[in-house]
Amino acid sequence: MAMEIGDRPATLDGCWATWSEQDVDNVIRTDYDSGAMQTRRRFTGTNRVVTASVTMKAELYSDFMNWFRVNQRGGANATYVITPYGEEEVFQWTGPPAISWPEAGAFTATVTMWQGAWF
Amino acid sequence: MTMATVVNSMQIVEPFLWLLTFDDYQNNTVLRAVGNLEDVTSRGEVYTAFPFEIVLPTDDGQKPQTLKLVFPNVGQELMQLIREYAPGLNPKIKMELILASAPDNVEKTLDFMEVGNVTYNALAVTFDLVSSSIFARRTCTGTYNQAEFPGLFWALQ
Asked: Which CATH architecture has domain B15-133?
């Protein structure tokens, strides 16, 4: 499946301060009264869902938002981010970043994104 | 590992995958998809990972067997295929069931279906698949009743 990649602005390194992820469950499980469990794997490959956040200086706000609004076409395109294990990988954001300003000079962006097995 | 061995085990580690082949003979192309998270190569052909749902018919022995295939329509990949088709040239669809560990070994083939009807909206495309044999399809039905066919019931009056 072809996918367009939105470039990350040069001023942003793509790193995150927090990163929590979980694979999309790929197995159907049936519980019986006896406690036995029957399982069936549905697909090969794995889809990942990640929630990450980063705090940046206020002057990077417009670059960060342009990364999502313009380069990623509001989330229609995927982009490259840096994972905690140091690899640059393709992820697609599942929605607009949530922005909070803990103080005037810095903002915190929280992003939920996913990575398909075919990325 | 054969399908009979797999389905009788408590832990089925081998996914069953449906391969889908759209025979777009009007445009002389073939579209291949697999209901999986990653592409599958079977018998030298690459089947592209594409999510879809299969709605199986009720097997009550009373109705003709029809299938529904539901595809996401967000990318509108199938719109051109649907809109270009002339009446009477319905695309043929072949469905094949494989085990992920043996993609070249087809366990089950449904190759007698063709597209009978298509409905779509912004989110989903639904194909109603019917048998390509007209004798296996639902046809017009009627009942002989006393109001419409009084001559048949003259002895009862």
From this structure: Roll (2.30)
